[in-house]
Amino acid sequence: MVAIIDYDAGNIKSVEKAFEYLGADTEVTRDSETIFRADHVVLPGVGAFGDAMSRIREYGLENIINEVVKKGVPFLGICLGQQLLFDSSKESEGARGLGILRGEIIDIPDKDDKGNSYKIPQIGWNSLKITEGARLFKGISGEPYVYFVHSYYLKAADRSIVAATTDYSVTIDASVECGNVFACQFHPEKSADVGMQILDNFLHI
After folding, report:
1. Do residues 142 and 184 lie in contact, with contact meaning Cβ atoms separated by under 8 Å?
2. Is 189 a catalytic residue?
3. Of these four, 37, 112, 115, 189, which has the most CB atoms within 10 Å of its CB?
4. What are the pLDDT digits (tens) for 71-125?
């Protein structure tokens, strides 16, 4: 069973439908026993970092998430769900993240180092450069396109956890893998066949 953590964070329905399309038994829940019983756990997210962490703590989910990760259950953060795995974000100064992984969440610049302008947020399709051996991207070749909606991005402290990057004014760490913890800044549930392959790969971890 796939537990999709419900903390009023936006894109839950589309994530649920994507896993159901792949034949997975899913439950949208914030119940601790249901989450602990799951074979895979997903932390989706759309919105502001600080507000999301406030809701996670309000619903008593922080310790549950940490326990699931410690147990070795495959865990996937999506979009804001990737950012929440880290310590903090420039979006919400003073707000403390989950701190499971190390890195900075910072603003996407509206100009690159050559002075070219970029619209912020990044909304739309962009290509990935995949790290060799990344488990989420098994069977995916070349530089596939996936769908992004974000104004802030991850710069991981440990480069060995970076599973894929994308370029949009700067190089963005678009996906990470560390043990049983996986995350994507983009929306695999909105990324057509490539996204479905990524979610299917997660189900087989």
Report:
1. no
2. yes
3. 189
4. 999 999 999 999 999 999 999 988 999 999 999 999 999 999 999 999 999 999 9
